[in-house]
Amino acid sequence: GTLGAMRRRADGTEVKVEVTTYRSDTYDPDSRKPEVNYGDTLEGDLSRRDFTVNAMALRVPDLEFVDPFGGASDLVKGVLRTPVDPSQSFDDDPLRMMRAVRFVAQLGFSIAPDAAEAISSMRDRIEIVSAERVRDELTKMLLSDRPRAGLEALVESGLADIVFPEIPALQLQIDEHHRHKDVFEHTMIVLERAIAL
């Protein structure tokens, strides 16, 4: 399991530290819940993460920075890549596709082309994820500073066709006053203006 601890710095800020054993996962194709096994390397454990920006660690006690998948570089570039082949990653846990879209909205990141392609081709896998988990990701995306970017990524990937079909359906609608090319674009403009208030 994971042990968490909060530590207060001299300046009064808190830092959350998590300590865990090395693990590896085995997935059943019909479920996103893995069988968790204990692993024997930090690098192997980091390969289970959803994105490279989450696959970095400090090896203790010498505080060696471990970044086998280039997460620090991706963090600086604002790019979401998977530590392993994206098709395998999203097949193992389809919720990762929704997390990618959420991070577009929350962090202003872009999805790496191979990951975006995998999301588009594997979007039907989202159906094995519980409605509650999908809802939670949608809620976090919509409450972020950049929900338009997240909604656009959701539509572009095809995930919206499955989890929020009302949104891509707006692209087919022309507003009654013919001021906008489609109701989707108008809705995105209204959303941005509402946030700016």
Task: Tell me what you see in this structure.
The protein has helices at residues 42-46, 71-77, 86-92, 95-107, 113-122, 131-142, 147-157, 159-163, 166-169, 183-196; strands at residues 2-8, 14-20, 23-26, 35-38, 57-59, 64-66, 79-80, 110-111. It has a two-stranded antiparallel sheet. It has a two-stranded antiparallel sheet with strand order 3-4. It has a two-stranded antiparallel ribbon with strand order 5-6. It has 197 residues and is an alpha+beta fold. The chain has ten helices and eight strands. Helix 3 crosses helix 5 and helix 4 runs parallel beside helix 6. 45% of the residues lie in helices and 16% in strands.
Overall mean confidence score, pLDDT: 87
Unreliable stretches? none
- What's the structural domain tally? 1
The number of distinct β-strands equals 8
How would you summarize the topology of this molecule?
Blueprint: E1 2-8, E2 14-20, E3 23-26, E4 35-38, H1 42-46, E5 57-59, E6 64-66, H2 71-77, E7 79-80, H3 86-92, H4 95-107, E8 110-111, H5 113-122, H6 131-142, H7 147-157, H8 159-163, H9 166-169, H10 183-196
Parallel strand pairs: 7-8
Antiparallel strand pairs: 1-2, 3-4, 5-6
Helix pairs in contact: 3-5, 4-6, 4-7
Short description, anyone?
The protein has 197 residues and is of the alpha+beta class. It has helices at 42-46, 71-77, 86-92, 95-107, 113-122, 131-142, 147-157, 159-163, 166-169, 183-196, and strands at 2-8, 14-20, 23-26, 35-38, 57-59, 64-66, 79-80, 110-111. It has a two-stranded antiparallel sheet with strand order 1-2. A two-stranded antiparallel ribbon has the order 3-4. A two-stranded antiparallel sheet has the order 5-6.
